[in-house]
Amino acid sequence: MSLLLTGLAASSGIMIAPAYLLVESDLSVTQQHTADENHEVARLHDSFALSRKELQKIHDHAHQSLGKRAAAVIDTQISLLDDPTLHDKIIDQIENHHDAAEWAVEKVKNQYLKLLEGMNDNDYLQSRAMAVRDVTKRILSHLLDIPLPTPAALDHRAIFVANDITPTDTAQFDRRYVAGIVTANGGRTSHFTIMSKTLAVPAVVGVKDAATLIQNGDMLIVDGIHGKVIVNPSATEIEHYQLLAGKFAQEQQAWGALRDKQTVSADGRRFEVAANVGTVADIADAQENGAEGIGLLRTEFLYMNKDQLPSEDQQLASYKQFVAAMNQQRVVARTLDIGGDKQLGMVQLPHEANPFLGFRAIRVGLARPEILRPQLRALLRASVYGRLAIMFPMIATIEEFQQARTILDEERAKLEAAGVQVADNVEVGMMLEIPAVAVMAEYFAKYVDFFSIGSNDLIQYMFAVDRGNANVSYLYQELHPAVLRMIKRVIDAAHAEGKWVGMCGEMAGNPLATPLLMGMGLDEFSMNSGQVLRIRSLINHLSTRQLQPLVHRAINVETAEKVKQLVKEYVPELKDLN
After folding, report:
1. Residue 518 CB: number of other CB atoms within 10 A?
2. Residues 297 and 204 in one domain
3. Catalytic residue among 59, 142, 191, 480
4. pLDDT (tens digit, 9 = 90+) per residue, 340-385?
5. What pTM does this model have?
6. 205 in Cβ contact with 222 (< 8 Å)
7. What angle do the packed helices 123-144 and 68-82 form, to 10 degrees?
8. Do 473 and 429 share a structural domain?
9. Active-site residue, selected from the candidate residues 59, 61, 142, 504
10. Which one, 215, 272, 495, 505, has least CB within 10 Å?
11. Structural domain boundaries enclosing 92
């Protein structure tokens, strides 16, 4: 009898093949101290040297077998090993806290992860956290003399199954044998996106207990379109998924033809489908996937793993790359979004019992103008290289937006007075994440050039739910009528003032939400690059006028499940989605 498991679709496609379990090494460390710090420092140096030698070998294999982009994933890890900050922090734990090398590595790793994993809306920072885990795991393997699993040992076509598959695991894959990837943990991280695309294999992550419920050699169907894994499928299921695989291959070919065209609905309405990015390396991915701009540039990457704030010129050099590379397609840059759950070492912020409702984002920027002003100056200076929009995160009141806008205008005036050129067409808007703003949208719309709806936080605040908490995550409902009503209110208010509205939360990339957002008149959809062509194809096949009755009915039912049923009724091609 077959077993159905569900998770997150990290890379599209369908594959049928046997399972290959990647068994993890036990690298658990307990608290240990030493009386011989010099010996522990020497051991640490040796483990760094051996780790670097191994990573260079993996890098060379990846470059030769998988290409430059795959090798770049390992470059990140080598740069971490070469980063004196990481090395010095571990040495400090040994010399000043008398920790054994293993315990020092474990403590510093946890410090890094606490910082990086708090930023749960940023794929780049999440992938950075994975790199830290991967590098420290390799260092510990040498300190403990315990070998790591070797994916290169696979000698037959199979689907990798593990609790976690790290960047160095994927870089060792042999493209002849890797049929798919299934993990119990993780989300749609950058290295998965890059590697699964390079290998052209489906990936489903976050499949609870996958490494326990799946045995070596079990036949699997991996559905990377809908986020499903079927263990030991029946003959009927295999036949059904073989047909779906053929259909998907045809769809992919059709999606590729859209890359250089505009996104226009069946009745002629123009939409913009953009990408969310968090690092310069994401630009090529966005362009390759047909993104029509950058709808969310997360600027936090410039501040990570630094001992001091980046200078105005350093920021300019980075922003210029994004703006220039997009060839007059709009780049929407979000000012620094830190605070509470998102701590930076060089910015001392108070510990808070309820960080999601605390001192964060624009609240920090307004209180610490020495952080906000240089960033705004750098963005304004970068505006002449293309088409730039600036948005302020976590705005709660009109006064906050006006204060932020005043600072921006002051910095523009200073630059122009100094003879520095600034583009005339810089749009200034805000992330709409707080329900109070949505209720007052018609008043905010008078002051902003645009809204970008941050659906993740907006929904969390609406339902008073932490979607990362498994006990209450069921309450996080993108398609709930209350959410739809609020979004429609925002769009209507903005359009009444002649302003445009985008969305940069996960809802923007949800195909079940696309018909509803189209019918409401959302102007811009921004999402992970891998979802762009699929959403563009769906928009091209739908008529906004024919979706008006769907919107009317959806906002007048009682539950998210009824909304989902309505969408599938109006758009039959979505009937298999969850």
Report:
1. 23
2. no
3. 191
4. 555 555 566 667 777 778 878 899 899 999 999 999 999 999 999 9
5. 0.74
6. no
7. 60
8. yes
9. 504
10. 215
11. 37-144
